[in-house]
Specification:
- The protein has 148 residues and is α/β, with parallel strands linked by helices.
- It has a single domain, classed as Sugar-phosphate isomerase, RpiB/LacA/LacB (Ribose 5-phosphate Isomerase B, Chain: A, 3-Layer(aba) Sandwich).
- It has six helices and five strands.
- It has helices spanning 11-23, 41-53, 68-74, 88-96, 112-124, 131-146; strands at residues 2-6, 28-30, 59-64, 82-84, 102-106.
- Strand 4, helix 4 (88-96) and strand 5 (102-106) form a beta-alpha-beta unit.
- Helix 4 packs parallel to helix 5 (112-124).
- It is globular, with a radius of gyration of 14 Å.
- The relative contact order is 0.16.
Length: 148
């Protein structure tokens, strides 16, 4: 299950991504927003992060105009590894080396077709583990020390 959320600036792209997920029969939970009416993106990022923390959803997708605000907010939650991706390369390595569990995209920075390619790569890439496992352990240790 994928939790998906956006702010008003990412609404149109979120709706297109939902169509892709439906075509591929990938289950998702739409956590808002539900229109182009102004909303505060941190509230949406929080909902998506909480769904992953509670294991209600395995992954998340966040979209705002730049993707920056959503990724910053999501990464404030323990266990969330949100990667802002602009192309297939960044999507691949966010998963392969960093085991990202949330994909952030900027609706003003990426076309609909590019966003689908990024999403497809992110979903298809498996975490490599190995030498990267030690780095993720260090990140988890930093979270334990600093996210009380």
């Amino acid at each position: 299950m994928i939790a998906i959320g956006c702010d008003h600036g990412g609404y149109k792209l979120k709706e297109e991504i939902k169509k892709y997920l439906e075509e591929k029969e990938i289950q998702y939970k739409d956590l808002g927003c539900m229109s182009e009416e102004r909303v505060d993106y941190p509230n949406i990022a929080k909902k998506v992060a909480k769904e992953i923390q509670s294991k209600q959803c395995e992954k998340g997708i966040l979209i705002c105009r730049s993707g920056i605000g959503m990724s910053i907010c999501a990464n404030k939650f323990k266990g969330i590894r949100c990667a802002l991706c602009h192309n297939e390369y960044t999507a691949k390595y966010s998963k392969l080396h960093n085991n990202s569990n949330v994909l952030a995209m900027g609706a003003d920075d990426i076309t609909e077709n590019e966003a689908i390619c990024v999403l497809r790569m992110w979903l298809a890439t498996q975490y490599e583990g190995g030498r990267h496992e030690e780095r993720l352990k260090i990140i988890s240790q930093i979270e334990e020390e600093n996210m009380k």
